[in-house]
Every structure is written in structure tokens, then in C-alpha cells.
Write a structure and sequence with these properties.
The protein is of the alpha/beta class. 21% of the residues lie in helices and 22% in strands. It folds into three domains: 155 residues, Spo0b-associated Gtp-binding Protein, Chain: A, CATH 2.70.210.12; 173 residues, Rossmann fold (3-Layer(aba) Sandwich), CATH 3.40.50.300; 73 residues, GMP Synthetase, Chain A, domain 3. Strand 5 and strand 6 form a beta hairpin. About 5% of the residues have low confidence. Monomer.
């Protein structure tokens, strides 16, 4: 099965906690702090790998987590960094942040990679908190938080030439004749549900050709499997537009041509800027000198397209179509490709997190609740048996403005203050 879209949850590793430790030597009371730092949490990294062809694996496993950093140890020993988690995906995979809908990275070629979620920093051991006043700090810093996010993986085929057209016009037959690919071929609509790839060899060159499943009217709005089909066309360099000029499906060939191009333009106007070769298929059922074909050919050529008469099952005219595709590819290789602007996910902004230092105050039932990301880290670093450590926590809450906010909300002595899973009784002097 060809799977070209998946949603997964990724989580980086949490940073290891700093250690609280003191040298234990004969005749050296306390001996001074020697707690080491915690290790950094592992990153989550996506990497394009040629050995993969679909996103099938992500249907069975949806959660991925990097290794946590190890806690610091005594004798100033650092904890080990957590191992990075490398998630391999097929080349042509776009990684999208689900919450913002922005592209994090387009992994076009094998070896392309990026860090999707950074591991938390390791916490500092108590050796860092010794000073002239505090000779034996009985607290250390907690490790940094892990980062969790949902991402969408979308695979877009990487092919030089894409076959487009209504269902059942002969695209799969053309692919099978032109390449060694063996797509499913039958006389009913949507025979091709999953895209097929094949390598075309002509003269002294070769290129990859993709049979994109038949597009229908309204595809750009998601009709049929519209979005799924159309996105595979975006990476192709040249389009071969296969049209059933015999009208065997009861449709007008010229209207078919117009409708398909309208769908391409509605989905992404850049698609109509790609070189497009019109393959007039099923010519074995049409009089080449008849008025119907002549009208079709003249109307298409008036729009600036080349028309090539073809009968894919009889292998008539196929070589001419493929030769034109090879010529267009060679011509494109000599011109710089115009890059499409895409708004990308802002990793720098994501790392800064402007709300990190904010302490939020809310009233829940009979308690006043304090929350905040940095507050949680400092709270987790607090030794409640150490007055210096408690004082540091109180000073942080006071400097954040939370104490003033509590007073404005009417907090009184004896009221309950809840910080995460702990409850305290409020006094004017903390």
C-alpha cells in the first residue's frame, strides 16, 4: 500500500537534573558542594532516507520519544546526554507543525535532515550555587523540559514528468508502454489510486515518470481524492496531459482539457507555468483528418501547446511524446528554477517562548493557583528543607508580580496557595 500522509507525536528528551552532593572526606565537615550537572535531553531529528518509499511505518507507530538526559552525580560528574532520536522518512517528505499549519522542513533529497524538537538542557549541580554567603547550597537546578508536538508528514512524489488527465484516458497504459512499470489497467474509473513511477529511457537519456491518479472536476476543493492527487504534481518538472480525443467516455475532449487545467490552476497557479505536452490518446478510434480532431488540435495549439497524436495500447506516437518530454527537461536544466515562497515554521521564535517567564494566577474553588513554565522548573529545583532554596522560590514569585496580583484578587492570611501538586498556607511574610 502506498501511504503518503501520516500524523505522529514527537517528544524530545527531558534534561537531567543537577545533583545535590557534598564531598565526604575525613576531617572535612560537609566538604563543600560537588554535585554535577545533568545531561542534555536527546533531540528528535527527521532525515530523508532512500531506502524508504512510503510513510507506511507511521501507520503502526504514532508516538516517538528521544532519550532523557541522565541526572548529575557526585564528585562533579556530569550526567550522560540523552541519545538523539533519528526518524527516517522517504525523500520528498514535507514535515508540518500541526498546531500552526506551517512547514517545518521540506526533505527533498536523501540525507536532508533537521531538528524538529530540541531536548531540554541539563540542570546545574549545586556546585554552581556556592558563593561567599552560601557555602553549602542544598539545592540544584532541575533539567529543562522536553518538547512535545504533533506533526503531519506529507509525501510528494519526486518525478521529472507527471501524467495528468481525467480518469480512464490512458495514463497508466502510457506509463506501462513507456517504462517497465506495471500499473493496474482496467476499463473503469480510478483504476489508479496510488501513484505509479517508472523510468523512461530514450536515446541517450532517462527520466522518472509518474502516473498521477485521474483528476476530476472540483479536485482542488478535495472532490474525489483531489488534494491527495494534486499534491504529487507539484514536484514534477514537465506535465504530459493525456486527453481521450475519441470521446469514448461521452465527454468533449476540449472541455476535458480545459477542466483539468482549471483544476491545476485553482490548486496552485504555478502548475500551469510548467511545460505541458498534450498527448491526444486513442487516435486509433479517431479519423486524424476528421473535423473533430482538427478542431481540437487547432484550439489547443492556439493556446500555445504542442499536440501529439498517440495510441498508447498500439505504441503509436509514444516515442514522439517521450522525446518532447526529454527535450523540455533538458531545456529546463539550463534555466534556474523559480522558487515558490512558503511561510516556514519559526524555530527561533519557538525556542524563545515569550510566555516562559510569565507566572499566571487563577482562582479555583477555594485555592489560588500559580502556574508557569519557568516557575515549574524553579519549583522542581527547590529543596523545601532548605531555607535558602525556599527564599529563592519566594523571591522569584515576588519579582514576577504574582504576589501583587494575589493581593489584588483579595488573598488573605490562611488562604490556600496551590503550586502544581503542592498546597501552601498564605502568610503576609512567606
Amino acid at each position: 500500500m502506498f501511504v503518503d500522509r501520516a500524523k505522529i507525536t514527537i517528544r524530545s528528551g527531558k534534561g537531567g537534573n543537577g545533583a545535590v552532593s557534598f564531598r565526604r572526606e575525613p576531617y572535612v565537615p560537609e566538604g563543600g558542594p560537588d554535585g554535577g550537572d545533568g545531561g542534555k535531553g536527546g533531540d528528535v531529528i527527521f532525515m530523508a532516507d532512500n531506502s524508504l518509499r512510503t510513510l507506511m511505518d507511521f501507520r503502526y507507530k504514532r508516538k516517538y520519544q528521544a532519550e532523557n538526559g541522565q541526572d548529575g552525580m557526585k564528585k562533579k560528574k556530569f550526567g550522560k546526554d540523552g541519545k538523539n532520536l533519528i526518524i527516517k522518512v522517504p525523500p520528498g517528505t514535507v514535515v508540518i507543525d500541526e498546531e500552526s499549519g506551517l512547514v517545518m522542513k521540506d526533505l527533498v533529497e536523501a540525507g536532508d535532515s533537521f531538528v524538529a524538537a530540541k531536548g531540554g538542557k541539563g540542570g546545574k549541580g549545586n556546585v554552581h550555587y556556592k558563593n561567599s554567603v552560601r557555602q553549602a547550597p542544598n539545592f540544584a537546578e532541575a533539567g529543562g523540559f522536553a518538547k512535545e508536538r504533533s506533526v503531519i508528514l506529507e509525501m510528494k512524489l519526486i518525478a521529472d514528468v507527471g501524467l495528468v488527465g481525467f480518469p480512464n484516458v490512458g495514463k497508466s497504459t502510457l506509463l506501462s508502454v513507456a517504462t517497465s512499470a506495471k500499473p493496474k489497467i482496467a476499463d473503469y474509473h480510478f483504476t489508479t489510486i496510488d501513484p505509479n513511477l517508472g523510468v523512461v529511457q530514450i536515446y541517450d537519456t532517462s527520466f522518472v515518470m509518474a502516473d498521477i491518479a485521474g483528476i476530476i472536476e472540483g479536485a482542488h476543493q478535495g472532490a474525489g481524492l483531489g488534494f491527495r492527487f494534486l499534491k504529487h504534481i507539484e514536484r514534477t518538472k514537465v506535465l504530459i496531459h493525456v486527453v481521450d480525443v475519441s470521446g469514448s467516455e461521452g465527454r468533449d475532449p476540449l472541455e476535458d482539457f480545459e477542466k483539468i487545467n482549471s483544476e491545476l490552476e485553482a490548486y496552485n497557479p504555478r502548475l500551469l507555468k510548467k511545460p505541458q505536452i498534450v498527448a491526444a490518446n486513442k487516435m486509433d478510434m479517431v479519423d486524424e483528418d476528421g473535423p473533430e480532431y482538427k478542431h481540437f488540435k487547432e484550439a489547443i495549439e492556439a493556446k500555445g501547446y504542442k499536440v501529439f497524436p498517440m495510441s498508447a495500447p498500439l505504441n503509436l506516437g509514444v516515442k514522439e511524446v517521450l522525446a518532447e518530454a526529454a527535450f523540455q527537461l533538458d531545456h529546463l536544466a539550463q534555466e534556474p528554477e523559480e522558487e515558490e515562497y512558503v511561510e516556514l515554521f519559526d524555530f527561533e521564535k519557538d525556542d524563545q517562548d515569550p510566555d516562559y517567564r510569565t507566572v499566571y494566577v487563577e482562582r479555583e474553588d477555594e485555592a489560588y493557583v500559580l502556574t508557569g513554565k519557568q516557575l515549574e522548573k524553579i519549583f522542581n529545583s527547590t529543596n523545601f528543607n532548605d531555607s535558602g532554596s525556599l527564599r529563592y522560590l519566594y523571591k522569584y514569585i515576588e519579582k514576577s508580580g504574582a504576589m501583587d496580583e494575589l493581593k489584588e484578587m483579595g488573598v488573605e492570611e490562611g488562604d490556600t496557595i496551590r503550586i502544581f501538586d503542592y498546597e501552601f498556607e498564605y502568610f503576609d511574610e512567606f
